[in-house]
Amino acid sequence: MKAYPYSPVKTNAGRRRNLSFLTRGCACLPQRYVLSVFILVGLVVCYLMRVCVNLALNEMTFKLNATESHSGTKQHFCPVEASTANATKTRAEFDWDQHLQHDIIKSIFIGYIVAHVPAGVLADMFGGKHIFGIGILVSSILSLCFPFLARLSPYAFIFGRILQGFGQGVMFPSSSALIAKWAPPSERSTMTGIIQSGVMFGNAIGYITSGVILSMFPGWEPVFYFCGIIGLIWCVGWYTLCYSSPAEHPFITEEEKNMIESQIAATAKAKPKNIPWKSILTSAPFLTANMINFGHAWALFTMVNEMPAYMGKVLNFNVKSSGLFSAMPHIAMIPTSIGIGYLCDWLIKSEIMTVTTNRKIFSFLGKLGFYHFQLLIN
Questions:
Q1: Mean pLDDT, each 10-residue run in order, the chain (378 residues)
Q2: Angle 311-107-218 from CA coordinates, rounded to 5°
Q3: Could you tell me which of 98, 111, 181, 100 has the C-alpha nearest to residue 139?
Q4: The dihedral of CA 205, 210, 211, 213: what is its sign?
């Protein structure tokens, strides 16, 4: 029988050759850290898409007069530079009041909250790769649609932000599922530290990049297109190079796969047949951890969401300066996040601290320093 040019045999043979090439090329790169870096960059992309709205709103909307408000009472604002006032006036399209702008900023958290629990369940069922990737894909497409939604209606913009929040709400549950499959216990804090630094990188890069883009172009739309395109490019790399577990990875080395699976199996506990929801929801450690994280999120998101508006609307900084100053706290967090993760692993491996003591001490020190800083700047 005559062989066709694209017969299955040739296709499979070509695929095996491609995988062999990738295996040789990636042998020098631990795939668990390739995955960690991809998750880090994914978080950067998500936070870039999130914080660009905070800066863009200052340029999309008309500024309140320096001496008058809508109620006619005097307000205390810094004077506006002539160049800044003219630049904002030419690109401002919407007469949205402060309450509506805050609703737009906050709306992302509606979808963000709703997505967490189902995302964790779905990541266990279908693999963290797919849930994480779909979340960023949805967020990227919506970012490209935001200029159209904003001109359609502020409520269409809010609805788009809610959907984007749902897409971004899958990030941490699905990344936790990936860490559980990929991180050996002896490296879990290091890998977690690398991944979590994506939040700080994302906020820092997001503010600086958004400020630069908004200052370079006469309109505010390019910042949304930039974020969406970057997200789509990330998705291509993610679906090509990353997998939900070492067993599914086609070009991981046997040595690395066996090391990860053996270490995880040695410390694994049998999963309960049914999830003990009542025991979880009444557990003192669980409730304490939730209270700590609630306080941390409250302080962090207040700083992330309100600082650009304060600098742009009250201090009347230009958009480039607003982006730079808003990024500074997050830049300072980056070395701490990565360095503390490495220190935690070293203390555990050296048997200086148990895992439980380690987590308690560093969580306490981190939250204490963060809240003290918040009090000082207020």
A1: 41 48 66 92 91 86 54 52 51 85 90 88 90 95 95 94 93 91 86 83 85 88 94 94 91 89 80 79 85 76 72 70 73 72 78 79 68 48
A2: 50
A3: 111
A4: positive
Q: What is the dihedral of CA 241, 242, 246, 251, to 10 degrees?
A: 0
> Contact at 8 Å (CB) between 34 and 241?
yes
- Three-state secondary-structure class, residue 75: coil
10 Å CB burial of residue 79 (0-12, 13-18, 19+) is exposed
Q: Give pTM, 2 decimals.
A: 0.73
- What is the CA 359 to chain-centroid distance, rounded? 23
**Contact of 96 with 213, CB cutoff 8 Å:** no
What does the alpha-carbon distance between residue 121 and residue 110 come to, in Å, rounded to a whole number? 19
Count helices and strands in the chain by DSSP H and E runs:
15, 0
Phi then psi dihedrals of residue 94, to 5 deg: -120, 135
